[in-house]
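Journal club prep, notes for RB
We'll compare a predicted complex against what the paper describes. Inputs for the FE2/S2 (inorganic) cluster case:
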Amino acid sequence: MSEKHHHDHGKHHHHRHVAAMFEPTITLRKNGPYHIRGKVNIVTANGKVVETAGEENWLCRCGQSPNKPFCNGTHERVGFQSDLDADLAAQAPEGYEDVCGEQDLPEGEIKGFKIGGNPVLLGRVGGQFYAIGGLCTHKQVLIEDGELDGWVVRCQRHDGGFDIRTGKAVRPPAVTAVPTYEVKVEGGRVLVSRRSS
Ligand code: FES
């Protein structure tokens, strides 16, 4: 991801972008932890400071982590479920989105797109196109900077891997699958379904 820090505050969109990056944000991960980005103080009820790993933290949301307040992946094991985007998924329009030309993606390569605001990763293996969710389920980074190793998309961050055909996590530390999207090629254009499966 190319995040450039601009000091040109005269330009409205740059200013807004920078503000968004530094404002502390808590993301309610699908079936997972509280993902906290930004500088925050985490304290116990009696005001004891909880030491954190820096400006990115994952706090247990399922209530079962033995490492509270931090997440240690237990939500997976206990099958914790809470998807606060379920309504969005249901609202996603049907049909396909034209993302690129067939020639735009050479064999063995991947490319990131946004479909209805969601990051989607398109890849080509053995002449076939496949599309999966574009965010690594390990630490929620874009995997478009990773690379294809056969059928496996390898995340550049910790080398987690996802099978591009099924979305299944096949290399640790990734354990949760990414969604898959249907892909078809028509008239030299690559079309990706708006709804994931
Ligand atoms: S963020 Fe992808 S493997 Fe850790």
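Talking point for the session: The domain at 88-196 is CATH 2.102.10.10 (Rieske Iron-sulfur Protein).
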